[in-house]
Amino acid sequence: MKTTVAIIGSGPSGLLLGQLLTKAGIDNVILEAKTRDYVLSRIRAGVLEQGMVDLLRKAGAGARMDKEGLVHEGVNISWNGQLHRIDLKKMSGGSSVMVYGQTELTRDLMDARLDSSAQTFYEAQNVQPHQVDSDQPYVTFTHNGEDYRLDCDYVAGCDGFHGVSRKTIPEDKITEFERVYPFGWLGVLSDTPPAAEELIYAHHPRGFALCSQRSLTRSRYYIQCSLDDKVEDWSDERFWEELKKRLPEDVANTMVTGPSIEKSIAPLRSFVVEPMQYGRLFLVGDAAHIVPPTGAKGLNLAASDVQALYCLLKEAIQQNNPAALERYSEVALRRIWKAEQFSWWMTNLLHDLSASPFEAKMQDAQLAHLLESVAGQTLIAEQYVGLPYELKED
Ligand code: RFL
Ligand code: PHB
User: Fold this and answer.
1) DSSP at 239
2) Does 164 reside within a domain?
3) Which of the seven top EC classes does this enzyme belong to (predicted)?
4) In angstroms, what CA-CA distances link 37 with 11, 65, 110, 123?
5) For residue range 257-285, what is the model confidence (pLDDT) as tens digits?
6) Segments in the chain below pLDDT 70
7) 286 Cα to the center of ligand 1, angstroms
8) Nearest bound ligand to CA 127?
9) How far apart are CA 228 and CA 242, in angstroms?
């Protein structure tokens, strides 16, 4: 079997890259370890930057998002029992974000791929890239008990944090940067109307809380929890009670609660690998970096990586300029590090760090200043709606 770009992983990175390449007439094959339904069962991000919204439209997968997604022009920070609204549109010079779940956009991308002739192997086992430091790389895998070899010109490692692609790169060729946080997020999805029109990020002495949403009838909530906590420790009742304690009284009093339809605990991590390429293998999205979810950047960074790689692959393949791809890592990393910084900063600003009383006062002082200052609100708004992409498609 032969293709131009072998894509490992059918999360948002792999599917979006595949779809853009297919639209541009560049042959690609996706190899995914899990089933389609398993990929769709993962409840993750929900806030899309304008750049990602535009990419989904370009990939021909934006129609349902445009119909069902919710445009948010502001976001709230709850502190000292009060909501402080940041006017994203005003402060960022006209941008907003789109609330549309990762599950839904993954489904849309899968459907768009089904409508094309591009090939996807779900439940591909033992996926392994080979000779990526040569100009004849290939990927081997097993599917339905049969062994395959996929020859290709390029390999896109879109296989997430635990994937095989990053591990293929010799240890002495990459550097890893990591911060693991001493707390987690307990998330609940419920078919209840959102607590507020726009998202609420809450800083409270009992810990951080977030009120997010998927639609006007489906809410997503998170509370900061201990890494030792188990999902079984948290009945729905206990979750709602704790969430309400961390929110302003009027929000808590009017909040509609109901049975959870999903409940999970996620650890928080910052991670970046440099460089994001080795020979003809390019790492994309979570395969190369992780952010704590506080800034809603994980999925959006995957999209900006895809945009950069797509532009450079197009130049390499269609304008016969393979050297263009040498820039991928540096272009992607410039944007990644800024989002890493924002996510780390928001995490430290809003969580209970169990630090000294002095440090808690420092958090309060910083919040007070940020929320009353135009410069402070502008800083948050600019980053939250997403920094510009560096490359433009010709
Ligand atoms: P994904 O979504 O992890 O997809 C990778 C795909 O690769 C497959 N795979 C393999 N396929 C073949 N062979 C192998 N050896 C393979 N190993 C893995 C996997 O099955 C999977 O289908 O990475 P991608 O595409 O880069 O997308 C990134 C986003 O999913 C991610 O950044 C965000 O979801 C991060 N994230 C969140 N981001 C936010 O912005 N807001 C959130 O609220 C938020 N919540 C989360 C999250 C990530 C989580 N993870 C990774 C545990 C909550 C969780 C629990
Ligand atoms: C979500 O809706 O899952 C979500 C929204 C914003 C975040 C993190 C998660 O910062």
Assistant:
1) H
2) yes
3) oxidoreductase
4) 12, 20, 11, 11
5) 999 999 999 999 999 999 999 999 999 99
6) 394
7) 6
8) 1
9) 17
H or E element at residue 385 = helix 374-385
Residue-wise pLDDT for 146-157, tens only, equals 999 999 999 999
Q: What angle do CA 213, 204, 366 make, to 5 degrees?
A: 105
Structure tokens at 86: 């940041």
Q: Is the CB of 210 under 6 A from ligand 1?
A: no
Would you say 85 and 76 are in contact if contact means Cβ atoms under 8 Å apart?
A: yes
What would the two tokens of residue 324 be? 């263009």
Cα-based angle 23, 281, 285 (whole degrees, multiple of 5): 65
Residues with Cβ < 8 Å from 260, sequence gap 6 or more?
188, 189, 190, 236, 239
Note the pLDDT tens digit of each residue in 306-326.
Answer: 999 999 999 999 999 999 999
CATH value at residue 285 = 3.50.50.60
Residue nearest to atom 52 of ligand 1 (CA): 266
Give me the pLDDT at residue 394, please: 67
For position 42, what pLDDT does the model report? Answer: 87
Give a yes or no: residue 165 inside a domain. Answer: yes
Give me the domain span that covers residue 331.
5-72+97-177+268-352
